[in-house]
Amino acid sequence: MATVLTRGKALTRATAHGSEFEKKDFDASSTSVASIPPLGEPIERKKHFWQRSKPYDSEAIATLPSVFDDPETAEKYQPPAEWENTHRFDPLARWTWGEENKLIRKIDWRIMVWACIMFMALELDRANIGQALTDNFLPELKMNTNDYNLGNTVFKLSFLCAELPSQLVSKWVGPDRWIPTQMVLWSIVASAQFWLSGRTSFLVCRALLGMLQGGFIPDIILYLSYFYKHAELTIRLGYFWTAMSIADILSALLAQGLLRMRGVEGHAGWRWLFLIEGLLTLIIGIMAFLLMPAGPCQTASWFRGKGKEGWFNEREEVIMVNRVLREDPSKSDMHNRERITVGLLWKSLKDYDLWPLYALGLVFQIPFVPVGQYLTLSLRGLGFDTFQANLLTIPYTVGHMITMLAVAYAAEKFSNLTALSVTSQIWGLPFLIFFNVADLANTNRWVIYAVTTLLLSFPNPHPIQVAWNSRNANSVRSRTISAAVYNMAVQTSGIISSNIYREDDRASLYKRGNRQLLAILCMNIVVYALVKVYYVWKNKSRDKKWAAMTEEQRLDYLATTKDEGNKRLDFRFEH
């Protein structure tokens, strides 16, 4: 967020009923504060999906104050001419809450729903290895638990290594071109797992899948940031990762049918599982070429609407561009097909103010991943058959969806990202203590299943932290790189997680591994506290410097500073 300098003029609430604000070229030298059309006031939006929407005046002005309302500060944040949406930028544009809310619903339907469908396709091809395990996958390929661990490590390492290069390619050619290409390529590899013959082919396919899927998530996040404001993005990323959970449920249900194909044409059920789900992703990847516009003002195509308008008319494009830019002027820093140079890459990587978030990405999921990764295998070991083991994964997935959405909504309601994120660790504490103190060998299998289900239903703060990283980047360049680096940290945590439960610990139901998970969880609580302390300290330091400056000095700073992104004195970190 950025400090908004004003001239002390009171903001006036107005309605757009019966009046039209004519679009003009904004000239700071001839525009005075008195000539700026009246601005609106924020409305109290519902923060939880179970709340009723509070009544509001749909004709009230929704255009909120920003740096563009003072001609002197507006000059410092003017979008460059080469930015793809500059032709729709108009600091004098005004719109109503009725128009904005209707437009947000339209963006959700046109952009967000398809993003969720693509993510579900990725999850199907990434996670169906869990269903294959219940169908004698390891014995038939003459592999053991350590081979499976190695496969997961190879996948995540390949995924990690592909993150940054993929993000750079996406920024250069555009996510609307690169993401569909990724999907088509990885779907071919996913389908090819039908012909796996042993350990070597298994590892090769996991490596290729990781390389081709790597970068998909940060690519999508950057893409969505073109359309949504910060708080909107946090909540929608909650739905985005909910789509992953829905895919896990669908995967379990599909496995119920596909694994029963064992014997068809003389092949195992897990082979049909890989083939059919891979072909499904191929279809979605081809459709993505048609359904992903390059940006808010580039939706026109033969498939996305007739004429020059595409999905959105001129009025809607003006609202889309200006409402996002008024909240975060840094989103006009780069063209959506502008490549990032080596110098800009290095500048982004050494941005130490984002390192605390990378640290969170590295550790926050470790206490939960091994338990989930081995769930179907553990259920088989507890005496459940193939189809029971797959269906018993559904309850925790539903619980995980509910808690993840709840914590994402709560983070925006209470404006405390750190406190809501650390609830995941507090949630897992009693269940991991149980795994460490109980005699699991003599515990009823349904009790073990219940505790495991509750542990894996933890309120995942991943959507919060991804949006948190995006907010604290404060520039398109940094947001592009940091999204990839954060996700690389998450994938690194996956590599660590994949090697905690080992074959020699299996007989004791992973007693040693559970001790390690509990220790890491306790460490994570401390890490979250340190991240909070760091960002509070940074903001107070900047507040002190900013308060010591006169208004003229502040304007001079805005006009002459070489500070960029989150290094600006008028920027405050979210926490």
Automatic annotation (TrEMBL):
Q: Which UniProt keywords apply?
A: Membrane, Transmembrane, Transmembrane helix, Transport
Annotated TM spans:
203-226, 238-259, 271-292, 355-377, 389-411, 417-438, 517-537
Cell compartment(s), UniProt: Membrane
Where is the major localization of this protein?
membrane
Which SUPFAM superfamilies does the protein's record reference? MFS general substrate transporter (SSF103473)
Q: Which residues, by range, are in coiled-coil regions?
A: none
List the protein's name.
Transporter
